[in-house]
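Query form — protein MFS transporter

QUESTION: What is the three-dimensional structure of this chain?
INPUT:
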Amino acid sequence: MDMMPVIPRPRRSGNDTDAESTNYRILYAANAVSRIGSAFFPVGLAFSVLDLTGSAADLGYTLGATALAELGFLLVGGAVADRWPRIRILILSTLCSAAIEALAAITLILGSVHIWELVALSATAGLSGAFSRPAAQGLIPTVVPVGGLQRAISQIRLANSTSFVVGPSLAGLFVAATSPGWAVFVDAASYAAILPLLLRLRGRLDTTKPEDPAASIGFLGQIREGWTEFWARPWVWTVVVQSAFVNMGDYAGFSLLMPVAARELYSGASSLGFLISGTGAGFIIGGLVGISWEPRRPLPVSVSYLLGCAAPLLALALQQPFWVVLLATLVGGFCTEQHGVYWDTLLQQHLPQRILSRVYAYDQLGSELFTPVGYFFGGAVVASMGLLPSLWICVGLIAVPTVLVFTLVAIRGSLHPDSSLFNPAR
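ANSWER: The structure tokens for MFS transporter are given below.
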């Protein structure tokens, strides 16, 4: 059978399975509440900056501070999550986020805030994500019943996708009815609301770390070990390199070029709203399919789905009718979510628990490494070359590496269990 070597998991009794199911439901509920609240933060932050200075550049600096802080500390967060109990990392990061955002919300509501304080707030949000994301990813396999990992990942991602579709609209209405500061306060309240859930989960888990020989190598040694483990698995870093280019093209195309195309080729803001909703609907459909369908060869399936990210940009580049572009956004969202479900499942099934958070951190860092490049230079490319050539460049950034990596993992037989692509001991 063509499949990757699975790390053995011990047999569990019925009581153990019931306990894991309860733990998973607690984690799922905490994630869902947090995601709904987090949808309010970027909307509140954006309008806070625009109300304060009216400068798009200041908004760019503020939003960029989140990405830079998270990317800058991801490796540290991954090492921390592999060194100490992950549930404790989640609780501490949640507590810090609740306190800092509550303070920021009060400051915004009172009206005594400066732009540098908003930049610092944004950076703090990114810093929290750098610790919470690797810890959460590493925690999922420990609370999911045997055989239910992909279903659990699909359910979690489905909740995230639903919040992506519904959250910003609710946040926009809320800001219009109140003020940006209150939107930030909603996010702070959501962090406070999930603390009892995380504390309950902590009480149900064994938070003692197993004796690990790697702990003696020190903190920096663990980061280096994470790189060694990451590089020893070409099936991981090959897809990460692919994703770095795909994300550069996809993010620049979606965030920069699609609004320009909606204005120049269609009816402007209303068209853009429908296109974003189409992408969100694709996310939801992809998550629903991921709950029930488990491909026999998940790696080439996951890799090939990234080609679908180019669908809406290709339709725009070909200047298709709006309904075709709308359908293409549905396809793009579906393919993006399907890739995410199967890729997350592959990582969590086939990486040892002791290195999972560190390898995940390298995965996220590498996958998003070129994204700021797409943001910073995308506007200049449009200004110098025009919209349509810029769209074709983004399509190429997605399609070319995807075809190359798919050829490697599917046509050249790299899925064989004896292949060095999967077995780092070879």
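ADDITIONAL NOTE: Residues 1-14, 414-426 have pLDDT under 50 and may be disordered.
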